[in-house]
Amino acid sequence: MKRKLCALFILTFVLFTLALPVYAAVDATDAAGGTTRAVTQEADADTASENDLVGMKAIACGIAISFAAGGGAIGMGIATGKAVEGLSRQPEVEGKIRTNFMLGIVFMETAIIYALLVIILIIFVI
User: Fold this and answer.
1) Phi, psi (5° rounding) for residue 27?
2) pTM
3) What are the distances in angstroms from CA 14 to CA 8, 19, 45, 53?
4) Which of 14, 62, 113, 119 is 20 to 30 A distant from 72 in Cα terms?
5) Tens digits of pLDDT across the chain (126 residues)
6) For the chain, which residues make up each domain, given as ranges?
7) What residue ranges in the chain does DSSP mark as E strands?
8) Angle, in degrees to the nearest 10, between helices 45-89 and 94-124
9) Cα separation of 51 and 29, whole Å?
10) Residue 6 CB neighbours (<10 A)
């Protein structure tokens, strides 16, 4: 099961990475004639480097949030499974298990929220 999940994750990552060049063809509009032309190597160097920076930020943000959310989700799933397993084995310690479970879930969710804040900083500040 873990191999299938890992293979599915890698396949999805590769497919999305290979799909990114599709969005690289940007059209620009001439102000005078209203015609469109493809942005080529003749375009301004500042515009090209700015487009590259925006694209790299998008890729970095996508990878960062996918790893943060995916890792958090896997961790929460494992913690939930272990908590339920512990409750089924020893129902008399429900209070301790629930307290520790909730504390662990809060810490995992906090790490995901911190990753989201870093991504927002990357998008809007850098």
Assistant:
1) -100, 140
2) 0.58
3) 10, 9, 30, 21
4) 14
5) 778 777 777 777 666 665 555 555 444 454 555 555 554 545 555 566 777 778 888 888 888 888 899 999 999 999 999 999 999 999 999 999 999 999 999 999 999 999 999 898 888 887
6) 46-126
7) 27-29, 36-38
8) 180
9) 16
10) 10
